[in-house]
Structures are given as structure tokens and as C-alpha cells.
């Protein structure tokens, strides 16, 4: 774990430190714009599902290391959705658009069974070029 912390940028180290201070029994959900195109799942990876968009970039390796080290799971890669409900950010160029998935909702591997849906939503009136990403979960599963 110490080696992983030395390789991660400061925000990932801070996030790992904050996460380690929380009680294990708590259900913790991390969400945000990670600017990471996580790409396709690799054979040994258990932190993401199969419904992703894009090829890995530098930030994706940071996010992958963080998730792997903290036994986390990227929930909005676990549910089969149309491309428009996977894409979270659009780069609008002169002649075309580039659609990416760079915003994620992350939970622990232990609690991923609580979640029943995650997706992005276009058409929300906000001053952002990012889409709203939501996560549905079943509190009855906590019993």
C-alpha cells in the first residue's frame, strides 16, 4: 500500500487517507470528475464493469490504482446502457463531437451489491459541459 501511495498524485493520496479514516462499517460513496478515461476492463481488474467508453489515459491509471488499492468499484460501468447514458462529457469541436466517460461514482467492493442502477443523463439544464451521473441503490439490502 505504501508503494501505491508514493506513485499516486496528491489528490489520490489525500482521498486514500480520508477513506482510511472512515469506519469500515460505513457505506462510502465517492463521486466526481476524475478526468480519467478508464477504458475497457482488463483481465485482472475487478474495480469496473464492462460498460465503459474510451481508451485509457494517464488519469485512468491513477484512478485504476486508487480503486485497486482501496478495493473500490466504479458503479457507472456496471450497468448496460445506451451510449448516451454512458457518456458523461462531450468535447464539441468545429465539425464533430468527442464523447467520453470521465465522471464516476465509486463505492467499495463490499457494498456494490446495494446498487441497482447508475447512468448519466443529458438534457439537464446546468451551466456545465458534463452530464449528471446518478446512482440508484436499495437500502433494504442493508438488512
UniProtKB/TrEMBL annotation:
InterPro entries: Endo/exonu/phosph_ase_sf (IPR036691). This is Endonuclease/exonuclease/phosphatase domain-containing protein.
Amino acid at each position: 500500500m505504501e508503494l501505491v501511495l508514493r506513485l499516486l498524485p496528491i489528490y489520490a493520496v489525500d482521498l486514500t487517507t480520508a477513506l482510511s479514516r472512515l469506519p469500515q462499517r460505513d457505506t462510502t460513496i465517492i463521486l466526481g470528475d476524475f478526468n480519467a478515461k478508464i477504458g475497457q476492463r482488463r483481465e485482472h481488474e475487478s474495480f469496473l464493469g464492462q460498460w465503459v467508453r474510451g481508451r485509457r489515459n494517464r488519469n485512468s491509471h491513477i484512478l485504476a490504482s486508487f480503486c485497486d488499492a482501496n478495493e473500490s468499484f466504479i458503479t457507472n460501468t456496471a450497468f448496460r446502457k445506451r451510449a448516451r447514458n454512458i457518456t458523461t462529457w462531450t468535447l464539441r469541436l468545429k465539425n464533430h463531437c468527442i464523447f467520453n466517460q470521465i465522471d464516476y461514482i465509486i463505492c467499495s467492493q463490499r457494498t456494490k451489491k446495494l446498487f441497482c442502477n447508475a447512468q448519466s443523463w443529458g438534457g439537464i439544464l446546468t451551466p456545465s459541459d458534463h452530464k449528471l451521473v446518478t446512482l440508484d441503490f436499495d437500502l433494504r439490502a442493508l438488512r
